[in-house]
Write a structure and sequence with these properties.
The protein is of the alpha/beta class and about 240 residues long. It contains six helices and eleven strands. Helices cover about 30% and strands about 20% of the residues. The strands form three sheets. A six-stranded parallel sheet has the order 1-11-10-7-2-3, with helices on one face. Helix 1 packs across helix 2. It binds 6-phosphogluconic acid. The site of 6-phosphogluconic acid (6PG) has 14 residues, from loops.
C-alpha cells in the first residue's frame, strides 16, 4: 500500500492524470473501472482539459465500479457525471464505453454486466481483470456501492451484485471484492475533512476497521495506492 498526499483535489488530478497517461502510453489497451460520486469530477475535468489531446483514448476502455439504478440522463447517474466531466470533452470511440445500464432491472443488469466482464476482460486467477480500478470512499467507509450494513455482499461469489443505499434505499449495481481485488492495480481517490477518521482507521488497520468495506480492498497484486488530499490525510 502506498499513501500519496497532495495539497488538494487539483494536485491529485494532476498526479493521477500523469499515472493514467503513462499507463495508456505503455499498453495497447487499458481496461479501467471508474468510480462515481463527486471526487472524480475534478480529476475527469483535468484529464479532459490537460490530456484531451495527449492521450490516445482509443486505447482506453471504460467500465464502472458501481452505478446507481437510474437512467443514464439522471443527475444521480455516475455515467452522466462522467459524460459531463470527461466523455463530452474527449474523442473516445463509443464502443470503448461500457456503462452499467442503470435503467435496467437491477438483478438482470448485475447478471448482464458480470457476463460482459467475463466476455471483454482478460482472465487472471480465473477472474476478469481490470488494468486499473479507481475507488472512492464514503465517510461511512463504503467503497464502490458496498455499504457497511451489507458488507457481506463483498464476498458474494459473482462479479456484480445489487446493493442498497442505507439511507435512500436506492438500488445500485456494484462490483464485488473478487473483481476489485483482482485488478492489476487499485487507486483510492479520497478527499475532504469528512473522510479523515475512516482514512486513519483503515490505513492504520485500527481494530474495528474491518467493518468498513473500504478496509477489504487488498488487491492480489498488492498494487494499492491511496491518493489523499491534506484534509483527508490530516490525522495520519
Ligand atoms: C458512488 C461512488 C461511491 C463514492 C463514494 C465517495 O456511486 O457514489 O462510487 O463509492 O466513490 O461515496 O463519494 P464522494 O466522492 O462524493 O465523496
Amino acid at each position: 500500500m502506498e499513501v500519496k498526499i497532495y495539497k488538494d483535489k487539483q494536485h491529485i488530478a494532476e498526479a493521477f492524470a500523469e499515472k493514467l497517461s503513462g499507463l495508456i502510453t505503455s499498453k495497447e489497451k487499458v481496461n479501467i473501472a471508474l468510480s462515481g460520486g463527486s471526487t472524480p469530477k475534478v480529476i475527469f475535468d483535468f484529464l479532459a482539459e490537460q490530456f484531451g489531446d495527449k492521450i490516445d483514448w482509443s486505447k482506453l476502455h471504460l467500465y464502472w465500479g458501481d452505478e446507481r439504478c437510474v437512467p443514464p440522463i439522471d443527475g444521480q447517474s455516475n455515467f452522466k457525471m462522467t459524460v459531463n466531466h470527461l466523455l463530452s470533452k474527449i474523442d473516445i470511440p463509443f464502443r470503448n464505453i461500457h456503462r452499467v445500464w442503470g435503467e435496467n432491472d437491477p438483478s438482470l443488469e448485475a447478471q448482464r454486466y458480470s457476463t460482459l466482464l467475463d466476455k471483454n476482460l482478460p482472465k487472471v486467477n480465473g477472474l476478469p481483470q481490470f488494468d486499473i480500478l479507481i475507488l472512492g470512499m464514503g465517510d461511512d467507509g463504503h467503497t464502490a456501492s458496498i455499504f457497511p450494513h451489507e458488507i457481506e455482499l463483498w464476498d458474494t461469489d459473482s462479479h456484480c451484485i445489487v446493493a442498497t443505499h442505507p439511507d435512500s434505499g436506492q438500488k445500485r449495481i456494484s462490483l464485488t471484492g473478487q473483481i476489485i481485488n483482482n485488478a492489476d492495480e487499485v487507486c483510492f481517490l479520497v478527499t475532504g475533512e469528512n473522510k479523515k477518521h475512516k482514512v486513519l482507521e483503515i490505513i492504520n488497520g485500527h481494530q474495528g476497521s474491518e467493518k468498513y468495506p473500504a478496509s477489504l480492498v487488498a488487491p492480489n497484486s498488492e498494487k494499492l495506492e491511496w491518493y489523499l488530499d491534506e484534509s483527508a490525510a490530516s490525522l495520519l
